[in-house]
Design goal:
Elements: H1 2-6, E1 11-14, H2 21-51, H3 58-85, E2 91-93, H4 94-127, H5 132-135, H6 138-164, E3 173-174, H7 181-186, H8 193-224, H9 230-258, H10 268-289, H11 292-307
Parallel strand pairs: 1-3
Antiparallel strand pairs: 1-2
Helix pairs in contact: 2-3, 2-10, 2-11, 3-4, 3-10, 4-6, 4-8, 4-9, 6-8, 8-9, 9-10
Keywords: Cell membrane, G-protein coupled receptor, Membrane, Olfaction, Receptor, Sensory transduction, Transducer, Transmembrane, Transmembrane helix
Family: Belongs to the G-protein coupled receptor 1 family.
Pfam family, one: 7tm_4
């Protein structure tokens, strides 16, 4: 109740991605194409993995969850962004803004933890193959999945707890197309240096350390398979390359946004757009296109439905 009394602002006005009508139309069409083509593709990946008895390995279990997380992540920003393109005044309530911010970081952190879990899975499979069946049991996979959800919730609730304590008394214009920590903090009617520092540690340092740790883990895997057979080395290299591509797509924009002081750069909105809308839909697709087992299963599933 104290928070509501200290916060005069009840809604925020989103300035959007751009003021150019031509660029807005281009972005609208681009997002619509992604939603109509790639988003159903993500759910098709989930259906394929769930329906094929041959895709029961932990790798595919985590891949299905990655597709679910990425699809859910895009629902936070993109639908409202599409609706805002058709509206003259882009307004979001204070509670709606905090809710959007919470789920953005909840699912985003969950995906970071999932990529860490997938790296651990690949390390055990490639470097400790004899222990793989005893370490990555179904129970262990579900426990890891639960841990990443809990970790994502803890990270996000810490972000929200810092934001809701800030007083907002105007102005109320957010220079973005969605609610995120850097832009919201700037509108607070108080000194936010300590809060910004805590946010950098909570989001920026956390993201950077995970990024460096993941790169180091795949470097270790590649070093361990140097003496393997040609076939084993080729498969390990293909798997690691796919994971590293996703890591750069996921962590690159996040590091750019959250590991520096909350100053504004011209590229911020463009980076945020690709980070929140485009890349999440593409991540599972990249995994699928580079995984022969999933591609074969997907073809069989489509063929079966086409014949029916």
């Amino acid at each position: 109740m104290e928070i509501e009394n200290s916060t005069v602002v009840k809604e925020f006005i989103l300035l959007g991605l751009t003021q150019s009508q031509n660029i807005q139309l281009l972005v609208f069409v681009l997002i619509l194409i992604f939603y109509l083509i790639i988003l159903p593709g993500n759910f098709l990946i989930i259906l394929t993995i769930r329906s094929d008895p041959g895709l029961t390995a932990p790798l595919y279990f985590f891949l299905g969850n990655l597709a679910f997380l990425d699809a859910s992540y895009t629902f936070i920003v993109a639908p409202r962004m599409l609706a805002d393109f058709l509206s003259e005044k882009k307004v979001i309530s204070y509670k709606g803004c905090i809710t959007q911010l919470f789920f953005l970081h909840f699912l985003g952190a969950g995906e970071v933890f999932l990529l860490v879990v997938m790296a651990f899975d690949r390390y055990i499979a490639i470097c400790r193959p004899l222990h793989y069946s005893t370490v990555m049991t179904p129970g262990a996979c579900y426990a890891l999945l639960m841990a990443l959800w809990v970790g994502g919730f803890a990270h996000s609730i810490a972000q929200v707890a810092l934001i809701v304590r800030l007083p907002f008394c105007g102005p109320n214009q957010l220079d973005n197309f969605f609610c995120d920590v850097p832009q919201v903090i700037k509108l607070a009617c108080t000194d936010t240096f300590v809060v910004e520092l805590l946010m950098v540690f909570n989001s920026g340092l956390f993201t950077l350390l995970c990024f460096l740790g993941l790169l180091a883990s795949y470097a270790v895997i590649l070093c361990r398979v140097r003496g393997s057979s040609s076939e084993g080395k080729s498969k390990a290299l293909s798997t690691c390359t796919t994971h590293v591509i996703i890591i750069f797509l996921m962590f690159g924009p996040a590091i750019f946004i959250y590991t520096r002081p909350f100053s504004t750069f011209p590229a911020d909105k463009v980076v945020s757009f690709f980070h929140t809308v485009i890349f999440p839909l593409m991540n599972p697709v990249i995994y699928t296109l580079r995984n022969q087992e999933v591609k074969s299963s997907l073809k069989r599933l489509l063929s079966r439905y086409m014949v029916c």
